Amino acid sequence: MSRLPKRGSAGITRRGFLIAMTAVGVSFGFPRHLMAAMDPASPDGKVLPSEGDIYEPSLWYSIDTAGKIKVNIMRSEMGQHVGTAIARILADELEASWDDIEIIHVDSDPRWGYMVTGGSWSISQSWPVYRQAGAAGRTALIEAAAKKWGIAAKDCKASNGKIISTKGELSYGELVTMGLTRQFTEEELKTLPLKPNADLKLVGQQVTSLDIANKTNGKTIFGIDAKVDGMVYANPILPPTRYGSKVVKFDDSAAKAVKGYQQTIVLDDASGSVPGWLMVIASSFNAAQKASKLVKVTWDAGKTANVSEADIIAHGQKLLGDQTKGSILDTGNADTEPAFASAKSTIAEEYITSTVLHAQMEPLNALVFKNQDGIWEVHSGCQWQSLTLPVLATALGEKEANIVIRSYMLGGGFGRRLNGDYTIPAALTSKALGGKPVKMVMMRPQDMLFDSARSASVQQLKMAFDDKKAVTAMEHHATAGWPTQVLAPGFMPKGTNGEPYDPFSIAGADHWYTVGAQKVRAVSNDLAIATFRPGWLRSVGPGWTGWAVESFMDEAAHHAGKDPLQFRLDMLIAEGRNAGSTPVAEGGAARQAAVLKKAAEMIGWGTPQAKDTALGIASTFGQERDMPTWVSCAVQVHVDKSNGIVNVQKLYIAIDAGIIVDPNGAEAQCQGAALWGLSMALYEGTELLNGQYKDSNFDTYTPLRLGQTPDVKIEFIPSKMPPSGLGEPAVTPVAPAIANAIYQAVGVRLRKIPMKPSDVKSALTKA
């Protein structure tokens, strides 16, 4: 297996996380102990046995004597139908019948390579791997049939689960019954001929999602449903600060009156994930909940007990004011000083985003125990098994080889379950009880309090113009709490000044506009990191860098006296570093210009609007420059000046994501992403107050409601390019498009999200 890039090595982006997966060596041995895996289409999620012998052309699937094909999926399922999408890539290349396909969400065994589900990577990174795997099976089956018939392989073809020639036809099951042993080296896999994209039959077509039935009838098994005989329940009592709090004493005398209450323990966590936690243990969930309310705890609070959101914002502004701080990204030419010194005019603005919670529907949970073979089993939905396992090993004082994370469906992830810290308290409690099964389910307030939120951010942008109002230079300075610095520092590349940076917290600032000299500086907000644990949230860096870039581009267009659409198009020049690169980014800025034009066409850009109503537009890419999904958003917005309420009437998205593998899933993902972007733009956001998040439930944390949903349209640009990601990109242009429309409608510019009615009214008062 290829090694992951070394910490701090140059040029790492978050695609580097997947190197181990895309270059994984072929190691055979389809797991017979399938209790650690899950088939989301079967009763209770249990993997159905194969019939007779099986043939494994590669690590990623097996074929049995009945012709049934089990496809191994290393990605986690959280509503995006990732298994169906990946399986159809393989089935198409294999020339299998869709009726014969089963998907298996596998456990955390190292054989699967580096396991992570996030970053909109799943389809793009799986595309070459599963196509090669499918080609291997097709090649082996054709060779076996040709040998059986005594003819040349070129005189045979694969179709719909059979090999066909003038000699007749043989099903895949029949060929497996004959006994197949053909295996392929990694080098051979890379040289196998793939079907022309034009000949793909399942990719891009409507097929039945293999896990849709159980999702529809309520039989899907989520982590919260996990149970084993003899388990006890543990309810956490959380400390007053995320870090630094210590338990001085606790009194559980009142809790002892609760039937089923057993004991309360203080966790001793070598991993640093849950300092200052107590776990209340009982024989039932209700007893643990009831008893925990009766336990009295005295803490020595951590140093951040008095830190609030305003402190983090002010600290960020101070950090950006020190030009020696941070990392400078490689943008080709970051020497902006001469251009600003000779500029005929300049503009500069600051943009702020509030703290945002994940607030996924399934609260955090984990069931952990040590089985009779001495293996620690962790039953929980997880987005990043390869990051969580080392933390579990540290906490338990065990080798990673003695820990397995079993597959469950996720009732919402959105990046929260990339950070597996929620498995630690259950694991430590089980260890304290000698390996006894312990199940922890957080209530909503606990879940929100323990969230790895998207950090508040401060961004300062400036632009230089010549005497014709053409752009000659641009700078983007950004600071926030960096999740990668806390959770995966080995994946932080170094900037041109030798300083490491979090690519998750600055991607998008290195945009595709040609602006002359371009300086991008990323600065870590150490106060944010000390106060809470920053996390990756759906759309990560581009969710807030895109807010600043596209709001600022609109302001720049008005400064230059140009139409905001044309101003952008004039700078989307596919030359030099903005020409793009193969395989995914080919076309570069020209493809971003195409989606921008398409979104403008969809909304009717330039058409007259009613009073206090206007159109807004923005264009971004997700997630990074080496795997961009080009996306533009056009909105129609009405602003009620009397109360400041912003009504988004139309929200139209144009996307170029290369080949669309799963049309239904793609549209659903983009609809959800766009509405998530709308939610964060107008409604969704919290703030830190005395070291903790202010909001603890949906009575005050108010994401987008159904009645606030506008007319949403998604259009994909037809493409023959390899697929890129779709889970996150449509989030990113929504907020700036709305802000730009508000300005066009009523003449006020909002530079902080969420844009609440009170913010609109205040801006109108000052205008």
TrEMBL record:
Organism phylogeny: Bacteria, Pseudomonadati, Pseudomonadota, Gammaproteobacteria, Alteromonadales
Protein name: Molybdopterin cofactor-binding domain-containing protein
The Aldehyde oxidase/xanthine dehydrogenase a/b hammerhead domain, residue ranges: 217-303
Superkingdom in the source lineage: Bacteria
Coiled coil, from the record: none
InterPro entries: Ald_Oxase/Xan_DH_a/b, Ald_Oxase/Xan_DH_a/b_sf, AldOxase/xan_DH_MoCoBD1, AldOxase/xan_DH_MoCoBD2, AldOxase/xan_DH_Mopterin-bd_sf, N-heterocyclic_Hydroxylase, OxRdtase_Mopterin-bd_su_IorB, TAT_signal
PROSITE patterns (UniProt xref): TAT (PS51318)
Signal peptide: none
